[in-house]
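lol ok so funny story. i was supposed to be doing the assay writeup but got distracted and ended up predicting the structure for this chain instead. priorities right. anyway since i did it might as well share w the group, maybe its usefull for someone
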Amino acid sequence: MIHAGLPYASDLAPMTQEFVAGDGPTQGRVRRVGRARVRLYRSTGFKAGPDADHLREVLFRTAQDPPGQALPLFDGDREVTLDARLGTQGGLHVRQDDPLPLTVLAVISEVEVGEACARLRVVPARREHLHEVLPRLRPRDRAELDALGPRGAVAEAARAFALSPLRWAVLRGGRCVALFGARPFPGMPGTAAPWLFGTPALDAEGRALARLGPLFAARMRAVWPRLLNMVHAPALAQRPATARWLARCGFSVAARAMPLGHGGALFHPFTSGVFLAASFAPEQPTNTGG
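and the output, tada:
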């Protein structure tokens, strides 16, 4: 293999957005950019983040793309989720340090300003987050995890965490109140099980979950075109809003409960993508929360 030319990196850092919000001008106020869309023309491969020191690769390849083959150039919007910090400055930093084409036509950012953005942060989950949440599981999350199998709630939660290449922690005031992610199904390429469990403090963040759920479900689908799992029937009967939240995230929830859990415990399957009727088996599920 022969390499010719000098390597270099191209950086794009748009100016901080200033505007008049419903409660006044944004200049000098605390803000966070949690999500942005990058409009591309005939491009592939780049890194993005809240600043030059916190960049990660934006995925273009999916499980459906043949390995070892170049991807076609992409036209359209690519959504980027940012692990942004609070501050009076905030935005998106884009970098191309590979010999690949990148033409950015526009950057559309979602900016949260004031106290609303200070409530929750979503960061990549670490094992210390798991150890913080497990002793304080919500009762319905513990009941659902117990109904999955003979291992018990703590072991089921730890197993889902360990098997998930994508997983995040929801922080409120510096404390972890929830964990969520997705684990791939063995023998089912392009398929994963999304999961979520948390502490009682998560129940106060329904509006934030309604906003974050569709965003991170889209990130999972960018890696796995098909998502499936199930929700504990007693939990769904107690909180029907869970079905509406799952629908908002792009899932279809089965109306009929099925004996898919340990000892015939009833669960409602939910899916996103195309599945055969026989896709579910009792040994497959992982807790969803909700």
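Helices lie at 115-118, 127-133, 139-148, 153-162, 206-223, 233-238, 241-248. The mean pLDDT is 84.
back to the writeup now i swear
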